[in-house]
Amino acid sequence: MSQQQPNNPLHGLSLEKILTRLVEHYGWDGLYNEIKVNCFSNDPSIKSSLKFLRKTQWARDKVESLYIRTFS
């Protein structure tokens, strides 16, 4: 992947920043309503959610897609 990504709306954003902003916007319940993964409903935290999302590409893709739909 090239370093230059002028058309990538996530360029320069860490997964942690993306998740934190979504939680601030939706809350954990709202985030779970958008993306049905247990880490958003069962004792959710940024740390545990990041651990799951880093291992689970489909869930990370959904989080990134939701971020783009919400904030673009």
Shape: globular
- Please give the number of β-strands: 0
Major β-sheet profile: none
The first-to-last residue Cα distance is 23 Å
Order of helices and strands: HHH
Report a brief summary of the structure.
The chain is mainly alpha-helical and 72 residues long.
Question: Can you walk through the features of this model?
Answer:
There is one protein chain. By secondary structure, the protein is mostly helical. It has 3 helices and no strands. The chain starts with 14 loop residues before the first helix and ends with a helix.
List the helices and strands and how they pair.
Blueprint: H1 15-34, H2 46-55, H3 57-71
Task: List the main descriptive attributes of the protein structure presented here.
single chain, 62% helix, 72 residues
